[in-house]
Amino acid sequence: MKIAVLDDWQGAARTSTDWRPLERRAELVFFTEPFADEDEAAAALAGFEIICAMRERTPFPASLVARLPGLQMFNLTGKRARLIDLAALAAAGVTVCVTGGGDSGRATAELTLALMLAVARGVPAGDAAMRAGRFQAGTKAGIELAGRTLGLIGLGRIGQLVAGYGTALGMRVLAWSENLTPERAQAGGAIYATKTELLGQADMVSLHLVFSPRTAGVLGAAEIGMMNPGSILINTSRAGLVDQAALLAALRTGRIWAGLDVFETEPPRADDPLLTAPNTVLTPHIGYGTVETFTDFYAQSVANVVAFLDGKPTNVFAPG
């Protein structure tokens, strides 16, 4: 039996849990680099019966599933994965198991706060100046967040945490989503606003929606045009929530700033224009990537695979 542990791009898997229960029963291979394309993934994974994957990293469309006829079990960290065709896996007779972990949203909310402060105070530029021996030369004065307005698009679990951070910093916090009401906004620590009101008043806009056909492009060219000059957009959710061409145009003209943890293609291509765009702070989709989250993810992954090998699968994914 061969087990593939995919998507260990940060090299965190081995130290996050005890893999010996699996190593005693199977050959375990860790993949620390992303596959270039589906052909490379299919070739590399052809001999594996079990795959342990990290959510939102390697795509698993139905076409790739069809090229892995020996696959018996697929373990996914988390319970939702836009890039993985879970229905196709189930239809192919593959046992699909999921984990908990990372459910509190704290990790992503804290990275949102980090990006808010990093953009507002120019932290990366200051770090680069120091390392280049320029001290303050070439850096710009930052802004204080106290007294400014934070606009949250989405006020779910993560949005509510960010609302609390904004309030603690002395910010006025507005929130909007399609189903949000003034009463629910107040309960979540924010003031309800229409999308137009929020974009027109916010000094900083942060996205906290689940990506879906309904939310795709929720910030299009028109909405980005409504944002105040000099305002800051934070996206730790999904790139598809924002019209990327309109975002790039606004960054290049200097109208807005952005702190981004998510991209249309991950890892981004070397020629992705966002990598050289001005007015940006970029992080490599590490919103949920903390020691605590990985410990939960990988410990539960090992337990799921052991249960499968014992003929008693647990945490089996139920479509729908």
Count of discrete alpha- or pi-helical segments spanning 4 or more residues:
13
Structural class category: alpha/beta
What's the average pLDDT? 95
Query: Based on CA inertia axes, which overall geometry fits?
Result: globular
How many structural domains does the protein architecture include?
2
Q: Any low-confidence stretches, pLDDT <50, length ≥5? A: none
Q: Strand-residue fraction?
A: 5-15%
- CATH homologous superfamily caption of the largest domain: NAD(P)-binding Rossmann-like Domain
For the largest beta sheet, what order do the strands appear in spatially? 8-7-6-9-10-11-12
The biggest beta sheet reads: 7 strands, parallel
Number of strands: 12
Describe this structure in words.
- By secondary structure, this protein is α/β, with parallel strands linked by helices.
- The chain has two domains: about 1-100 and about 290-310, 3-Layer(aba) Sandwich (Rossmann fold); about 105-280, Rossmann fold (3-Layer(aba) Sandwich).
- About 35% of the residues lie in helices and about 15% in strands.
- The chain contains 13 helices and twelve strands.
- The protein has helices at about 15, 20-25, 40-45, 60-65, 85-90, 105-120, 125-130, 155-170, 180-185, 195-200, 220-225, 245-250, 290-310; strands spanning about 1-5, 25-30, 50-55, 75, 95-100, 150-155, 170-175, 190, 205, 230-235, 255-260, 280.
- The chain has a seven-stranded parallel beta sheet, with helices on both faces. Strands 2-1-3-4-5 form a five-stranded parallel beta sheet.
- Strand 6, helix 8 (about 155-170) and strand 7 form a beta-alpha-beta unit.
- Helix 6 crosses helix 8 (about 155-170).
- It is globular, with a radius of gyration of 21 Å.
- The relative contact order is 0.14.
